[in-house]
# Entry
Amino acid sequence: MVALVSGVLFGVLFGAGLRVFEGGTWTAALVAAAFTGPAFGLCMALIHRRERRLLNQADFTNLAKEQLRAAQKASWRGPVPSDPVVRAAAADLARMQLGRVDTRWFRLAAVLLLVVELLSTVLHIIDGDSWPRTLLTACGAVLFGSFLVYPRRLRRRLEALSDS
# Structure
């Protein structure tokens, strides 16, 4: 279901963006959407499956579904849960996530993607491209830049969950 929804949504947005921002034909937009939608959907399905597998490997069998959902939310944002079981599960989830993103390869990939997006943004400005294209590229730079602060954010969240 994740693959279907994300693939269709991405394909539609990509095709519409191609038509609107690039001035291409609807035929070209449909062909682009037909190829990129399933590819993106497959990638999202694989990522979703990996996340589910990691979650299932962790020992959260003692939690009810509502508690697990609350722990997932609390591992990222919101008030620190008062329930010690949910708080401990949230800390475990944050620790798992930190272990995956606090690596040299994650930082290297984020820096490389950020540099490419920043260079693209500058080139769009120099070339006098349309503002939507420049804005979209700048948004990509912001997204990849946020990947660099993600481990620090998780560490602070883990600290908050552990201190309580």
The helical segments are 2-22, 26-57, 65-74, 84-101, 104-127, 131-163. The chain is about 85% helix and 0% strand. The CA atoms of residues 73 and 134 lie 33 Å apart.
